[in-house]
Specification:
The chain is α+β, with helices and mostly antiparallel strands. Helices cover 31% and strands 19% of the residues. The longest helix has 23 residues. The chain is globular, with a radius of gyration of 24 Å.
Length: 377
Amino acid sequence: MGGGGGVLLGMPGPWADDNREPSDFYTSKIGGLPDWPFPAESLAPNLLICGTCGSKLCLVAQVYAPISSGTLNIEDRTILVFGCIIPNCGNTPLSWRALRVQKVDSESESSVSTEEVVPSTPPVSVSKTNWLDDDSDEDIDLEALSKALSEAGTLASHSKKKDGNRRSESVVKNSTLVARTGVDMETPVVPCFYMYTQEPSSKDIVSSICSTYSELSVKEEQNCNYNDDEMGDAGEQEVYEYDKAFSADRTYLKFKKQLDANPDQCFRHSYGGKPLLATAELGDPGNCKLCGGFRHFEMQLMPQLISFLLDGADDCQKNVLENWNWMTLVIYTCSKSCSNSFDREKSTTSGWIVAEEAVLVQIEKSLHESILPGYFS
């Protein structure tokens, strides 16, 4: 994804053949089951429990989110967003959870280690223990071995960067990262489809802005054409409500024009950038629970995601998903994407960090309280 604050949009790809099918830790998708890079049993069970009703949370989004910036270079990193599908739970902050999963930093671990960069398709299989314990008289060509490992690492890294955000059948079938001994039939799931990313089109944004302000100019002109005799007390009240709505909902106008520019976007990613808010009010994301540092914006889920899920849902799931009326889910993560403070000795996740981050919910109700009825219809 990158780490310079640039915006990437998550766009819908193909539907999964089965909503519970395994994929890969480096795959971006909506719904289905999470793809952990360690045995699922190692995860603290309370992390995936709804804070409102105590039910199991389901995966809503899995977004591969590597960082490449001046100070950070983390390839093995994914953000997972979970939510509750119990009616009335999906609109409360306690029913949402965001987890940052990434490889633990280590000075002794190579940044181009073949086994870490693409654990799903290791190009070579060699054992350091065998090298050290081998008592045979056979000479080892270290220069040739080093060259082979370097070429394999480069090839593997290129392969992952190319296909990390798209479905890859070979990765799905051959992955050694999928820590599932059988199909999990207990965890609730929503319909699953895969994602790819693209940059927003500046042409579409400009077109949307022009359209929005054209509509506003027409409404303002209509408003100014009223004379005192025509308006009366009712007209004065209408003008007051319009002015109030125009002032209060400038934030939403910006939100709407960005949606109109790319109507299929399911998530927006901008590490360290600014969120696209539906309403001006936004809660406090708090500090990182591991290092105490401040959190910054990383990504958000967009309302079109719900529409796509409804398209693939059965009747039972539709009844649940129709209760979700959030406009956007805003995810804040540790600004350092820390892992050095992680207690490895007590960890059961095999060198991977699982950090709980912040999800801020902006729901439709808050929007409707300030918008003039029918203003955006």
